[in-house]
Design a protein that fits this description.
The chain has helices at residues 9-24, 30-39, 47-55, 63-70, 75-82, 85-88, 91-110, 117-131, 139-145, 153-178, 183-192, 208-220, 232-248, 258-277. By secondary structure, the chain is mainly alpha-helical. Helix 2 packs antiparallel against helix 7 (91-110) and helix 11 (183-192) packs across helix 12 (208-220).
């Protein structure tokens, strides 16, 4: 199955790789912890903040809905962290704190660059793409797209990055399901292609028994070798998932010309290097950003 797009899937993937660190600061920066702590959330680890910040656009969503939309996180984990989330602070207050956290975090990392003409241009281009993102069947993208736009360029860039990454994430779930990978299987195969060691995925709180059962199911399909590494068939299936994800994520970028997209990529590189260089993001991600998938564009 192919989709008409102005841009090649590898270009769409590059834009995700550049925008993901912009979005992710709100789950790791000290300022984000401070804002969450001021609301009453525990800040000894990032998960109470993560669930509150990421789910707040949905309103007081129950755990079952959040589990379905976050997909790869154990239902027990969602139940645990979401149980008292909206009693601690209602979603409107969380959203306000999240906006302040994103503003403060990026301003702290970017310094004078936050007010630069280049960042303002990047924010305008990213916003144009985000506003073109279709939200049919994309609940997290829709919930974030319904929020008001901020005014400061670095905050606009964060909001655009958030809409676009949730749009991509919603499509990624569809791609996983289209290739018959349940939540645990998706993580096991992600580990199998070398996205991160298996122990890194323990943060998703699946039990050892659930992980082993998923591994056995994938092995029975010829997707994993005995050592847990992806077979040729496993690589082919995971590549198909990622290609479909990139294709499904391409629609918003059709609002930009190839020249606009190239310009945005150039403009994003310095602030992204600032973010990465600040050392607030994990050294290794389970998202598979660095995994090389070979597919025809």
């Amino acid at each position: 199955m192919t989709y008409a797009s102005t841009h090649r899937p590898c270009t769409v993937r590059q834009l995700w790789q550049l925008l993901e660190p912009v979005h992710a600061v709100v789950y790791f920066a000290p300022e984000a912890y401070e804002e969450a702590g001021a609301l009453g959330y525990a800040t000894d680890d990032r998960w109470p903040m993560y669930f509150a910040y990421r789910a707040a656009p949905l309103g007081p969503a129950p755990a079952g809905l959040v589990t379905s939309l976050f997909y790869s996180l154990s239902p027990r984990m969602v139940d645990h962290y979401l149980a008292g989330s909206w009693r601690t602070a209602e979603p409107a207050r969380v959203l306000a704190a999240r906006a302040v956290a994103a503003d403060r975090s990026l301003h702290a990392v970017l310094g004078e660059r936050a007010a630069s003409p280049d960042l303002a241009e990047a924010a305008r281009l990213a916003r144009r793409a985000a506003e073109a993102a279709g939200t049919g069947g994309r609940p997290l993208a829709a919930a974030n797209a319904a929020l008001p736009w901020p005014t400061a360029p670095h905050a606009v860039l964060w909001h655009a990055a958030t809409i676009l990454r949730e749009h991509r994430g919603d499509g990624h779930i569809a791609a996983l399901q289209a290739h018959h990978l349940d939540p645990v299987e998706s993580l096991v195969l992600q580990s199998g292609v070398g996205a991160a060691p298996a122990e890194w995925f323990e943060s998703r709180r699946w039990s050892a028994g659930e992980w082993d059962a998923a591994r056995e199911r994938l092995a029975s399909r010829g997707l994993l070798a005995e050592d847990g590494a992806a077979t040729e068939a496993g690589w082919a299936l995971r590549t198909a998932v990622e290609k479909l994800t990139d294709e499904l994520a391409s629609e918003p970028w059709s609002a930009l010309t190839p020249q606009d997209v190239a310009r945005l990529a150039d403009l994003l590189l310095p602030p992204v290097l600032d973010i990465v260089g600040a050392g607030i993001l994990p050294a290794q991600s389970t998202l598979g950003i660095g995994v090389k998938y070979d597919y025809e564009d």
